[in-house]
Amino acid sequence: MSPNEQTPAAPPRSLAEALRTRDDASLARLLRARPDLLGPVPNDLTQLATRAGTRASVIRALDRLDRFTQQVAQALAVTPEPTAYATLRGLLPGDGTEEALPRAVARLREQALAWGADDQLRLVRTARELLSPAPQHPSPTGLGPTVAEATSGMSPGRVQEIVAAAGLASTHDPVSAVAALTELFTTPDRMSALLDEAPAEAVDVLNRLVWGPPYGQVTAQPAAHLRWLLDRGLLVPTTPGTVVLPREVALHLRGGRAHRELEPLAPAVRERTAHRPQVVDATAAAQAHTALDTVEELLKDWDEGGPAVLRAGGLSVRDLKRTATALDTTEQTAAFWVELAYAAGLLASDGEADERYAATPAYDEWVELPPAERWTRLVVPWLTATRTSGLVGGRDGKDRTLSALGPHLDRSAAPEVRHRILALLAALPEGTEPEPESLTARLTWERPPVTHHRPSSEGAARPFDSPAALDLRTRLARWTLAEAELLGVTGRGALAAHGRALLPTPGETGANGAGAPEASVAAARAEKLLSPLLPDPLDHVLLQADLTAVAPGPLERPLADALAVLADVESKGGATVYRFTPGSVRRALDAGRTASDLHTFLTAHSRTPVPQPLTYLIDDVARRHGHLRIGAASAYVRCDDDAVLGEIMADKRAAPLRLRRLAPTVLAAQADPGTLLEGLRSMGFAPAAETPEGDVLITRAHAHRTPPRTAPEPVPDGPPLPDGTLLDAAIRAIRAGDTAATTPRKQAPAANGELPRTTPADTLATMQAAVMTGDTLWIGYVNAEGAASQRVIAPIRVEGGFVTAYDHTADEVRTYPLHRVTGVAELSDQ
Questions:
Q1: Which of 4, 582, 753, 771 has its CA 20 to 30 A from that of 124?
Q2: CA-CA distance, 399 to 387, in Å (whole number)?
Q3: Whether residue 523 is found in the same domain as residue 594
Q4: What's the pTM?
């Protein structure tokens, strides 16, 4: 060999050796794709490889592969190990696979699910076990066990009978007999000749089993065509009454295909309708304004204390129906608004003995914000919330009804689905509404349900995913589209400009693990785009002769609050219609306003003259308001006009109040003042409550608030994504630990991977010698918490029972107590 020639590197013999050939950038991509491998940071690459092969971690990694990459992994699981790339390509023929297959294999390698060169591809053992056929359960490809696996429990004599019936020479042992049978089934020409002799009914049976499931039922006395298949090993008995189609036979019948249908390319999101972007933005802005009004109306309705909290938590069905009626919407939509207010921290339970829901102090701050900022305070929590209102009304695993604001509504996949839906909408031309079915099909391709198996409590294998779990992402996608329209993120089904601003721009790094930029950056960007589209609040209304007032747009808050007391909302929409009634006018008078105040208020804020009927209504109610006075006796009624009191006493409707006359101008009642007020008002009178001093009692709604509450934290979908600093530190520590574990040492390491052990005197002497020679040492160290680790250090100074050294593991100078060093070994010069 010439001096310039180098000996080719030996192929890796394990996943750990394959990881050692990677550079730091490749390891960072692995740890970013599978952050669960960092909890805690592995000591070395061997421990990283072991953790990457654990069942929970592999299942999590498989679940995050796209459909074609899953199909490649499934094909690898049914091939002999190791597998050549050419063999794998033969199992996956079709248009588009030539370009997609290298990417899929590279992704499996990058995520440490496969390793090895192209001529020796290997699937991680745990992944192979999950994706391979299990007893009575085919692999995800629909293939059953191999001939060798299917005949493993068969008697040698029966194996020889099958070999003879298939036209093969008998052998001296079952192993060679099975090998000959396998060779027959994997040789296309010989296999075709054998099947040409098969009865037509036998071929029909094979065709029914070929794409799976490969198991079938037979009687104790099978028909002639089934006996023909059984005699030649084309069907193999597994359990009494059950037969299986061997994998080699199925692959021949399939033409060598591992899957009936391959999906190498992501399905495109199809366009349904194209709208002008300006129309989309205006429609979305109008809906955003409606969303703000709806949340405000909800919390105003609960201003004095909302519904009671169920013992198990959440709203009762009856309270949800009442809320839906108050908001003039469906119960499912009402549940969305309730959950949205809760996610934004505007609504919570008050925590008192008679626990009820109410607005939080944050709500009072929220209503004073500009409309665009109020909107982002709702949308940003919605994007990251894991609570899913679409589940309300369904059943949990224990067949209990899921209630709004109740437990068990968190679904960790929800934030990722919402962000992905918006990203797919943003990829379409501006103003384009997609076909919802194509959108969900794309999501399903990107994150399909994985068919793998796990042991059940009885020990048999069963499908890992339940039907409900398989359909969750599709339902989340549909709910996201509906909720985005309600919130004004989309308009007419297309993504609005302010909705697009919520997504990261090119080069912008997400901070929440779901692909979104920093919340404050996205919110500011969306507010800037939405603010000009929202209508400016008005300072006037239009009074009409039919005792109504029309607000042609949103009103300034002081005007809206005052008008809400003086009149009742009759209808909403582009304009809000208020109706004045005797009850509403009396409500304003009870709140301390006089008739003169009301006339002045209406004159100042109406663009039309105050209609005469409205003037008469206010004056009439004010004239009678307070004519009767009610106080606490138990309760009493007093009036300067004794004729009015006589009229009350003569009215049969006053009997439940149990009134009696104490004086010409005073009646006493056994009812409490509140009941007495309502009773007399129902009789057509306009009484007013009074204080013990005889003054009219002014009543205003008491705004009930909870103590300060924080918004609910989303339930994370696994560990958080590591940032660049953590990745750099983790990789440096893993590299240093691996150096300590693999570098040849002058002292043999302890067995079973234990820490080096030397006496205190030898440890001290070796440390002092390394200070003078500059050698690097391998030490075992136990910290104050009792955690043991291996480290590679270069001692700088030894004094006072401490060693100061450059720690290659931490990439910094550290000081260690010598009594915590278990032992020391010199590293080889090689």
A1: 753
A2: 19
A3: no
A4: 0.75
User: DSSP secondary structure string, 285-318?
Assistant: HHHHHHHHHHHHHHHHHTTT--PBPPTTSS--HH
Q: How far apart are CA 277 and CA 271, in angstroms?
A: 15
Q: Say yes or no: 579 and 605 in one domain.
A: yes
Q: What domain count does the chain have?
A: 6
Task: Quote the tokens at residue 342.
Answer: 């809760």
Is residue 650 located within the same domain as residue 665?
yes
Rounded CA-CA distance 20/671 in Å is: 87
Whole-angstrom CA distances from 276 to 58, 225, 280, 289, 496 are: 46, 66, 7, 20, 11
Length of the chain: 830
In a shared domain, residues 283 and 224: no
What CA–CA distance (Å, rounded) separates 315 from 310? Answer: 6
182 plus 238 within the same structural domain: yes
Cα Rg, the chain, nearest whole Å: 39
Please enumerate in sequence order all residues whose Cβ is within 8 A of that of 593, keeping only pairs 6 or more positions apart, or say none.
565, 566, 601
Q: Say if residue 436 is in the same domain as residue 508.
A: yes
What DSSP string runs through 121-146?
BEE-HHHHHHHS-BTTB--TTS----
Residue 82: Cβ within 10 Å count:
16
In a shared domain, residues 197 and 158: yes
Find the domain containing 201 and state its range.
147-253
Alpha-carbon distance 631 to 673, whole Å?
A: 6
Q: Is 399 left (phi over 0), alpha (psi -120 to 50) or beta?
A: left
669: its two tokens: 């009642």
d(CA 637, CA 681): 13
Contacts of 8 (CB under 8 A, 6+ apart): none
Residues 135-162 pLDDT 10s: 666 778 889 889 988 888 888 888 888 8
How many whole angstroms separate alpha carbon 83 and alpha carbon 656?
A: 92
Give the tens place of pLDDT for each residue, 335-381: 999 999 999 999 999 888 788 998 999 998 998 899 999 999 999 99
What would the pLDDT profile of 278-315 be if each residue is shown by its tens digit?
A: 999 999 999 999 999 899 889 888 877 788 999 888 89
80, 199: one domain: no
| Cis peptide preceding 744, ω within 30 of 0 | no
551 domain-assigned: yes
> Which of 689, 708, 733 lies at the terminal end of a domain, its last residue?
689
